[in-house]
Structures are given as structure tokens and as C-alpha cells.
Amino acid sequence: MPDRSLPAAFSLGPHLLSLSGMSKERITSILDAAETFLDVGHQTVKKVPVLRGKTLVNLFYESSTRTRSSFEIAAKRLSADVINVTPSQSSVTKGESLSDTVRTIEALGADGIVIRHASSGAAAFVAERVNCHVVNGGDGCHEHPTQALLDLFTIRKKKGHIDGLSVAIVGDILHSRVARSNVLALSAMGARIRLVAPPTLLPRGIEGWPVTVHHRLDRGIEGCDVVMALRLQLERASGGYIPSLSEYASLYGLSARVLERHAPEAVVLHPGPVNRGVEISGEEGFRNEVAILDQVEFGVSVRMAVLYLLMGGRPEEAALLSMPARGEVL
Ligand code: CP
User: Fold this and answer.
1) Do 191 and 277 belong to one domain?
2) Does some domain include residue 220?
3) How many folded domains does the chain comprise?
4) Is residue 318 part of a domain?
5) Distance 138 CA to ligand 1 centre (A)
6) What is the DSSP letter of 215?
7) What CATH number does residue 223 fall under?
8) 293-302 tens-digit pLDDT
9) Residue of the nearest CA to atom 1 in ligand 1?
10) Hey, which of 147, 149, 279, 297 would you mutate to test ligand 1's pocket, going by the most ligand atoms within 8 Å of its Cβ?
11) Any atom of ligand 1 within 6 Å of the Cβ of 64
């Protein structure tokens, strides 16, 4: 088992599978660490040696541009070695099970595995079968914890705080692991959360969530500080949830007009990838700040913080991160 002797207040624990039960203090510690790592990305040589000698394996059973690349860049900036295992080009195609696959990866010397899988609970399943660290890179409709952490980081950067903000999450809540992780994290941080969606795109049991539910976009986003559009997950929805894409876009798509009228101060987020013209239209004409690419940039430093806190960095090393002269490699 990798070294996990960090002070409890600064350690994430062996795995990051979910944000359920994560305290405001713990989330704030991660965001603070990410702030430190943001500076590394602005150095000429974007590298620090805190995970030298560690190996991270990205194991993505579902497609990804942002999350997989972001973890790879984050790990490399921390000087870890990174391997990407693509199931479609691996022995998974010969019938190897998830359990055997992750045990094999661990036997190869992985200190950490980032797993993305179409099945809810896959990351926890893996964590029960290996001794190395496991990070949930998105499991089915369950959770995407690092996406929510980078969303919170972006909100804090743009608004200065999270506590007391009104955040509207708009769209396909039913299939969204991003929404679930965000509801957990935003409520822990003291934000007021509104979910805006047609009844068909809301999960059962929504009454027990710490949110208010709206079916009309204009009322749902009225006066909000943050509006987060979700991707309509066409690959998970086998049809019947919405009458048509154009009707969905006209009722729930964010436009300059609706934002200026109902949430003029709101910063606009989207986890990506965006279905242009469906969730968001005419972004170029927005007066509202659209922070989608900031989310991507901040995601690298948030994932650096997560990997560092999980995989054996030291707080005193973190304090050194902002000290080297530009271009110097520690
Ligand atoms: N937001 C997100 O998870 O994007 P990718 O699917 O590109 O990783």
C-alpha cells in the first residue's frame, strides 16, 4: 500500500469514489491545495517532483477528452509516470473481467487507478479488489467527484466564495453523475441549489435531495449566481424522455436573451462536451461570463491536488510549490 502518512486534516484517504459525506472543511482543503497547484501550470517548466516514482493508470471504459487528459497532465506535472489502458485495445476484448483487469494493472506496479465505467458502483467495486488508490473518473449515472470539485473551484474563483450562492443546474439530471456529485458538494459548501428540468429528466426520490425543483427555465434561473447546463446524455437515453431535441432546446437551452433577462450576474458552466444548439446556443453573443474553458484549465490543478493528497505528497512540499523561480525544476 502506498505511503498515506499525511496528517488526517490534509489527507483524502485511500480513495476518491464519491463526495457523499465529505465535509466543507475537507472540500475547502482540496480547493486550497488546487490553488497552490494552479501556480505550477503558470511556470515555464510545469513540473514539480512530489509524485516522482509513482505510477498512475488511467483505465477508461467510456470515452473521455477532458477527464482522461486532465488526469494524465496532472500526474505528469507531479512527476508521476502515467499509463493509459484503453479497454477496446486491451485484453478486455478477449473477455477479461474488470476484476482481473484491475488486479493485473496493480501487479504491473500501479500506485493509483483512475477508472471510468458505464456501471454505477464500478469505482467502489474496483476499490474493494485492489490495494492501490482508486479515483472515480465517472461511474454510470452515479458520481463524477473530480468534475464537481473543479466546478466548485471555478465558482470560488469567479465569485470569491460558494456559501450562500444560488446555483441552478439545468437539464438531464436523471442521467447525470455530474449533477449528483455537485449536489453533494454544493450543499456541503452551503450553496442553495435549484434543479431545472422536465419531469422526465428528474430521478425518483428527488424530494429527498437538498434542492428546489423547477420545470420552467426562466423561473429556475431567476436571480441565480451560477447557471450550470448539463449535457443531454443521448447515449444513455434510449428515447422517450423529451419530445424532440429542438423542443428541448427551446425550453431548456441557455441563450443570451434568457440569461440577460433572468440571471444577468450568473456565471455559466458546462462540464462538456457541449451539444451546441441544444444546451447552449450562440455563446459568442453572451454578456454573461461563460467559464467552460476555465473549468477545463482548473480541472488540471484540482486533479493535481487530488492525486497529491491521495498518493503520498507531503504538506511541506506543497508549501514549497509556489517558491521555485520560474523555470526551475525542484
Ligand atoms: N466533463 C467530462 O467528464 O468530460 P469528458 O467526458 O470529456 O471526460
Assistant:
1) yes
2) yes
3) 2
4) no
5) 9
6) S
7) 3.40.50.1370
8) 999 999 999 9
9) 271
10) 147
11) yes
